[in-house]
Amino acid sequence: MSVLTIEGVWKNFDGHHVLRGIDLEVHSHEVVCLIGASGSGKSTLLRCVNLLETVDDGAVYLEGQEITDPRADVDDVRKRIGTVFQAYNLFPHMSVLDNITLAPRQVHGIGRREAEEQARGLLGRFGLADKAEAYPDRLSGGQQQRVAIIRALATQPRLMLLDEVTSALDPALVREVLGVIRELKDTGMTMILTTHEMGFCRDIADTVCFLDDGVLVEKGTPEKIFTDPGHPRTRDFLSTVLESGRF
Amino acid sequence: MTTAWVKSGRQVERERVRKSRARRSASVATASTIIFLLLIAGVVVNAPGWPRVQETFFSPEHFVRALPDVLEGFMLNVKIFLIAEPLILVIGLLLALVRGLKAPVFFPLRALAIFYVDFFRGIPTLLLIYLIGFGLPALNLQGIPSDAPTLGIIALTLSYSAYVAEVFRSGIESIHPSQVASARSLGLSHAKTMRFVVVPQATRRVVPPLLNDFISLQKDTSLVATIGAVEALRAAQIHAAKTFNYTSYLVAALLFILLTIPMARFTDYLAARTQRRRGA
């Protein structure tokens, strides 16, 4: 079943076209990896899906409903999507527990006790049980990012968007965050993630999409994209990545 | 295996030098302060006319006589302050929030908030107190208060809420857009994003400038004297007029200072705490 359908999406900022007619379909339990150079439009595409940006043309459907319709209820759409950002964006004035329970309590109407129980369960599962009362600035980058993932997860989204969630972390912390994402995949979560970690991408993705200058150049299984890319631009990009030692 | 640390002779010598230097600095500072104060006191007390200055401004006798009346008047200042302050906070925050509303329905409200701030911030506080204090009762409308303290509270609230609204607005605008993006991504509405994410953080940031405005307000409560309320300044003035001695003004000044100094230290403390937390 299709969770998300992107149809001919265009987006420009001040006349510069960041997305040029992107088509993409994401099925239930599928993990889609967006790769491409910085500025290729990966993050913008994710921001168009959770409506932080309005598209200039085309349409996005979430579970069959057109969410790019101006009459769509933005808050209701976002309730069903969990988003994790590169810079974590935790709320610095709230404890870890409050960060996680804010949306379940205020958006989904779950009682405090139930929300906290659920949050503690998630924290325990991802090795952060002793951090429930801590404030974000007392945590390492990896811990903060894991909390951010749990916060998005706590609303039980149908789809998760992870935008370069490891880019701000050192290698040891990258591994602990990637471990969490792998566990999400094992639970059957539908995800779209943008990443520069090609090894991880190859490992976890069901589908890899290569974006270049706002165009979805090539799409396929990781084996296909990484061993036998069909497009010269994909090949160029992968060889650059290879040279920089990120693969 | 770890080796226990035994202080080396070099380090012991270093610490001895540091300690003796610190002791010397402290004694030099103490001595110079004492000499400085003695000099000033000597110059002032030996200046021609000092007895008259002492009698006019620092008379213990007049101090004791004026204190009860001025203190009673000062209680009115405190009362005006305590009532005006919460009103100012609430109205100021509301104005700031209204200015942040983006939906077209709220355009008239937003325009009104902008006009309010422009208008009341642009008028001298004293003029506003005259306008409200003499103007409102002159309307002879039913239900309009006519006692000076209440009218003063209204005028001060109008004036200061305009300032405080701008303080809150700058605090709200200083919160990084990524905080809003992440709250909205969790499905929180604009109102809930403001309530749980933006305003709590903004308020923490604007506490020092807000306290600064409060100190200013504490003093400006004395402007209400001009429309007939007998507060500290007016009580002191009455005393001075009766006795031709100005010690009563000094009493009033002292009372204001006693109120504002703790507030100022509290502001410093909060600022230092924020600094510490950032550094940690």
TrEMBL record, chain A:
Transmembrane segments: none annotated. Keywords: Amino-acid transport, ATP-binding, Cell membrane, Membrane, Nucleotide-binding, Transport. PROSITE patterns: ABC_TRANSPORTER_1, ABC_TRANSPORTER_2. Gene3D superfamilies: P-loop containing nucleotide triphosphate hydrolases (3.40.50.300). It is a peripheral membrane protein. It is found in: Cell membrane. Residues 4-238 form the ABC transporter domain. One of its GO terms (cellular component) is plasma membrane. One of its GO terms (molecular function) is ATP binding. Its main location: membrane. It holds the Pfam family ABC_tran. Belongs to the ABC transporter superfamily. This is Polar amino acid transport system ATP-binding protein. It comes from Nonomuraea endophytica. The lineage of its organism: Bacteria, Bacillati, Actinomycetota, Actinomycetes, Streptosporangiales.
TrEMBL record, chain B:
It comes from Nonomuraea endophytica. GO terms for molecular function: transmembrane transporter activity. It comes from the Bacteria. InterPro entries: AA_ABC_transptr_permease_3TM, ArtM/GltK/GlnP/TcyL/YhdX-like, MetI-like, MetI-like_sf. This is Polar amino acid transport system permease protein. The keyword Signal does not apply. PROSITE patterns: ABC_TM1. It is a multi-pass membrane protein. Keywords: Amino-acid transport, Cell membrane, Membrane, Transmembrane, Transmembrane helix, Transport.
